[in-house]
Automatic annotation (TrEMBL):
GO terms for biological process: carbohydrate metabolic process. SMART domains: Aamy. Belongs to the glycosyl hydrolase 13 family. Keywords: Glycosidase, Hydrolase. Residues 135-493 form the Glycosyl hydrolase family 13 catalytic domain. The lineage of its organism: Bacteria, Bacillati, Bacillota, Bacilli, Bacillales. One of its GO terms (molecular function) is hydrolase activity, hydrolyzing O-glycosyl compounds. It comes from Paenibacillus dendrobii. SUPFAM superfamilies: (Trans)glycosidases, Glycosyl hydrolase domain. Gene3D superfamilies: Glycosidases, Golgi alpha-mannosidase II, Immunoglobulins, Oligo-1,6-glucosidase, Domain 2. Signal peptide: none annotated. This is Alpha-glycosidase. InterPro entries: GH, GH13_cat_dom, Glyco_hydro_13_lg-like_dom, Glyco_hydro_b, Ig-like_fold, Malt_amylase-like_C, O16G_dom_2.
Amino acid sequence: MLLEAVYHRPKLNWCYAYDGHTIHLRIRTKRDDVTAVSAMAGDKYIWDQSMSYVPMHKLAADELFDYWECEIVPEYRRLKYGFLLENGPEKYWMTEYDFLKQPPENPDRLFEYPFINPADVFKTPEWVKDAVFYQIFPERFANGDPSIDPTGALPWGGTPERDNFFGGDLQGVIDHVDHLSKLGVNAIYFTPLFTATTNHKYDTEDYMQIDPQFGNIETLKKLVGICHERGIRVLLDAVFNHSGRTFAPFVDLQKNGENSRYKDWFYIREFPIAVQDGIPTYDTFAFEPLMPKLNTDNAEVKEYLLKAAAYWIEEADIDGWRLDVANEVDHEFWREFRRVVKKLKPDAYILGEIWHESSPWLMGDQFDAVMNYPFTNAVLDFFVDGIGDARNFANAIGKQFSRYPRQANEVAFNLLDSHDTARLLTKCDGNKDKMKLAAQFQFTYTGAPCIYYGDEIGMTGGHDPDCRKCMEWDEAKQDQELFSFYQELIRLRLKYSALRTGNLTFLSAEEGSANLVYTREDAKDKIVVFMNNAAKPQNIEVAVEEDSWEDIRSGEAISARLGALNIKLPAYGCVMLRVV
């Protein structure tokens, strides 16, 4: 047993309160090095009467490690614990201090979860577990009110450029809510709606005003009301890392320089502010001089931005915020942001844009979730780009899942493309079967899937600005078969809770193989998913305990033979079977 590989620490994702009564414990061991792990757990004040061994199950694995987990409901909301590691006859007891070959004589040097204090429990919005998001880039979704088109707006459907406009607005979304209801989505994520000079609106001019080319606050209220009547939640985009060049405090700074009362609203390295060899003398988003970075440690800046965060919840009843460039803003600002937002709307969804491992933001005091780009990369590598085999993919998924507490995984924002990337169908070189297979994993995985507008009807597009084409509303030019496919995926996900929050176990993910088999299981259902990520048909066989199954799409009855299911799949095929 390689003890050097064994890892655990209290709190974070290793020992945390899942709710007000339940504690999850996790421990890491070298892959395939330990055959069984148990938690020895009890109350520190009545250890002899309360201690018991709780078996742990293998939660996930990656290329180096196995991750084990168990759930404990302590009678008095506190826990003293250690671990028993077994590899056949070999046994070690792990304490906070050491590895022992005999059980510890007393609990003094074990790990401890002191008490489940309600204020410390990481609570995420329940509704997000059941959400299917649809991302809308407002300027390109639909033009519902030509009277508010920006000057120089082009006819709908032209070639997107970084600086052109087509007149998309909020009335256009209202006009096409039926499309969203028909598709089956129950949440919308809008890129920024506030006053700005660009078509993407990430250069905010006024955080308290809807951009006139999109409508006004009354239009937004109407849209949110219509969405809520249909069971659709609404998420807005906040750009609190930086403003735009026309933001009034920055305009004043440009005019008055070091004498501006707003000079401390930004990070100025040198006056007068200028751009020298392509580098501004003030901090910005990237090196973009038109997007000066805001000083969120400044009391006035903080007050203004938190007021904006509250305003749109109070006035328009929005359901949460997506936070742009979230990892470049200080943690203390986000802690205050969470307190303000959750006080107004406890089930508001706080989603950070972070493209990397995000544990520091997912400890219950800042975000509910992040945009799950490690998931995105793993899915695209395997299903789209053919990088790595099934084992590599399962390792990447296991590693990512093990990083966060379960409640954060359950509301993770799982996307495969967006306004920042090439479109999924384009990434698949137009191969719809590959696109569908990737989407089927997305919709049968823990977390909230998101469809980028137009993907459901076969829209294509390379990197920005090509991925921001005008939505195609001519039904003759829409891929209706693909639309039906997404409808069915959404229907199945919402029908079976196991596909949303059930435990995931890989039954087959072998080195050198393109085949993938995994189960999603909860108290209601057990579903096994077979995937063939190859360009030719494959027979896939996997051992199962149950005899009777049904195809959840067709309803066809399937029987296991000699303790195994044998499924023939076409190229890039997928079958989902449920125990009956």
